[in-house]
Amino acid sequence: MLGNYFKKKFGKEKEVPAAEQFYSPLRIGLHSTLTINTVDWLTMVESLNKMFTLPSSDLTVLAIGETIQDKAKIFQIYMEDQSKTEFMLQLFCNKDAVSEATLFKQVVSIVPLTEEEWDENMDGIGGRIIELDGIDYERVWGENHEGKLDLVQFDEKIIEYDNDASYTNNYLLYGRKFESILGGEESEMLLVGVEESDETAEITMMLGLPVPLQNINVQ
Q1: What is the pLDDT of residues 187-209, one digit of tens each?
Q2: Which of 64, 82, 117, 130 could hold 57 in an S-S bridge, CB 3.0 to 4.6 Å?
Q3: pTM as predicted
C-alpha cells in the first residue's frame, strides 16, 4: 500500500539473508535495487498528467505484495527513490512469466471519516469515465458495460523485512490514450480503489505507465 500507511509499514531497515527473502518474478527481492530506464518517457512528459512524476533515481524495494486473480498472479513491488518518493511496480504474470509491467505512483489519498464523506468521495467511481486533474480516463475493466461497476476485490499478502500482513483492496482500472511528440500512441493508466487493513481504509488513485520488461534492471 502507498501513502502514509506505506511509510508506517515499510519504512524500516533491516538486513535479511538472501535465502530468507521473498522473491517475485524478475528475481526481485527485499534487498533489491531497481533501475528503470525512463529515457523513452522523456518525450511524453508534456502529455502526461502533471500529478505524475518520474523516479529521480534508482528505486529501493521496501515490500512485495502478491495476489491471485482469475488464476493469474499479480506481484506489486513497493519502492522509493532517493527523494523518498514512493512508487509501485505491478507485475502481471501468466504461467509464472511476467506478461505486463506498470509503474504506478499514488497521487490521491483520502481517508473519509464519516459515511457522508465516503458517499461524496466514492461518487463517480465505477462509472465509464472518471476525471482527474481535468483529464478524462475511460474504464478499462468492463469497458463495454454501460452502467456503473463495483470495484474488483483483491486479497493481497505483503512481505516486508521483518513481518507480513494481509490487505483487502478493491480496484478499478481506467486509462487514456494520447499521441507522443514522436507521433506514436501512448497509454497512461489510472488505478482507482479502496485499500483496507485492520487499522485504516482509504480511497486511492494511482497514475501509471506501462514499462517494457527490457527497461527494468534488477540489482
Answers
A1: 999 999 998 877 788 999 999 99
A2: 82
A3: 0.87
